[in-house]
Design goal:
With 390 residues, the protein is mainly alpha-helical. Helices cover 62% and strands 0% of the residues. It is built from 19 helices and no strands. The chain has helices at 10-16, 18-26, 52-61, 64-67, 87-104, 109-118, 127-137, 146-157, 171-182, 190-213, 219-222, 226-233, 245-274, 279-284, 294-312, 315-337, 344-353, 355-364, 368-380. The chain is flat. The structure holds magnesium ion. Magnesium ion (MG) binds next to helix 5.
């Protein structure tokens, strides 16, 4: 690939760049090493003191799509309160949990953090209802997925450099995102797997927390579940001791994350130890899948199903979702019927990718609040130009 580290040998790079030696000392043999990166689409010189995945992490953190995650809902909308997670705070929880796991397994934490910060960057406004609405609107021309849109954002829509479009991220970061789209083929790097598992640990725990805070669930309902019982039994402080409702909820969420991370690490470390005699197999990574113990896998499935039935399909949420879907569809219909309403750069994109996809990209980048305001201006007030969210 054009941007591979080039002709320099590992030893030469080690002398020149401090991150090479740092990773050599800290990472396990089966980790993804920066020095072995397959590089970037557009050739760039190495940075003197930031490794390639650290630069990727920084590029994602500083891009405008990342900042807009603060205005995008995770599960619950802003009109429901301001305690619950946004897409941004969810992303940081995922990154934190993933880094904890990655550090114990001696994986590449810079790569893990880059992947975690990137993983939800393509979410349109209003969470999954926004995605469903855009997917239905684009049904005839390939559909819409937030995972695919994340790639479009970092490869085409973000502009920070004169030499190339997008953020020019490393192949290993882009491949992690591609795996989220296909979930096919060889198992991805262990860093990609860690972020995927941390994502589900984070949303299982915080969606339960947010739903309890909003009164959609109560503690007694949850405590019938085996995973919750396991969390309540996890070390001190003792759940049977008198405590406030608030403290009980916070303890439970803390323990829910702990028991899932601990089970994963114990299971994986045992498997890695067993595989030590054939380290090349682990090194190849294709054969090594990070998993929980069978009892934990089962308990997590039951827990996820419970959240699906009792939270994600709660009548209060269903009504909000239906309104959000309608809003996005009306905006999409107006913008595709009158493309001159689109900001100039999306009108230009429409010439190459079609007006439907250009309108979906414009809407997909919006925060919830910006989407509300554009709906009000373009649909309710009949304004004749849209604003760009850049
Ligand atoms: Mg996520």
């Amino acid at each position: 690939m054009a941007g591979s580290p080039g002709a320099a040998t590992r030893a030469e790079m080690q002398d020149k760049f401090p991150w090479v030696e740092r990773e050599r000392l800290l990472l396990a043999p089966y980790a993804t090493y920066s020095v072995a990166s397959r590089g970037r689409k557009y050739l760039e010189p190495q940075h003197p003191y930031r490794g390639p995945f650290q630069r990727d992490r920084d590029r994602i953190l500083h891009c405008s799509a990342f900042r807009r995650l603060s205005g995008k809902m995770q599960v619950f909308t802003g009109e429901m309160g301001d305690y619950h997670r946004t897409r941004l705070t969810h992303t940081h929880e995922v990154a934190t949990i993933a880094r904890t796991i990655g550090r114990v397994l001696r994986l590449n934490e810079d790569l893990i953090e880059a992947l975690a910060l990137l993983h939800d960057i393509g979410h349109p406004p209003f969470g999954h209802s926004g995605e469903e609405a855009l997917n239905e609107s684009l049904h005839a021309c390939g559909g819409f997925s937030h995972n695919q849109f994340a790639l479009t954002i970092v490869e085409q829509l973000e502009s920070r450099y004169t030499a190339y479009p997008g953020l020019n991220l490393s192949t290993e970061v882009l491949e992690g995102q591609i795996f989220r789209i296909t979930h096919q083929g060889q198992l991805p790097s262990l860093e990609v797997q860690v972020v995927d598992l941390a994502d589900s640990i984070a949303y299982n725990a915080h969606d339960a927390d947010d739903a309890m805070k909003l009164g959609l669930l109560d503690f007694e309902q949850l405590s019938a579940l085996a995973l919750v019982q396991r969390a309540m039994a996890w070390q001190s402080p003792d759940f049977s001791a008198p405590q406030s409702e608030l403290l009980r909820r916070k303890l439970l969420i803390h323990h829910l994350i702990e028991v899932q991370v601990a089970d994963l690490l114990e299971t994986v470390l045992r498997q890695l130890k067993d595989a030590a005699s054939s380290i090349d197999e682990v090194k190849g990574k294709e054969q090594f899948e990070l998993t929980w113990s069978p009892p934990m896998t089962k308990e997590r499935q039951v827990f996820s199903r419970f959240l699906f039935d009792n939270v994600y399909r709660h009548p209060q949420l269903v009504a909000i979702r239906a309104r959000a879907r309608q809003k996005i569809k009306e905006l999409f219909d107006r913008l595709t019927a009158r493309p001159e309403l689109l900001p100039e750069r999306f009108q230009a994109r429409a010439l190459t990718i079609g007006v439907e996809r250009a309108a979906a990209e414009y809407i997909g980048g919006m925060t919830d609040r910006f989407c509300d305001s554009q709906h009000r201006l373009l649909i309710e007030m009949g304004q004749t130009t849209a604003e760009d969210w850049r």
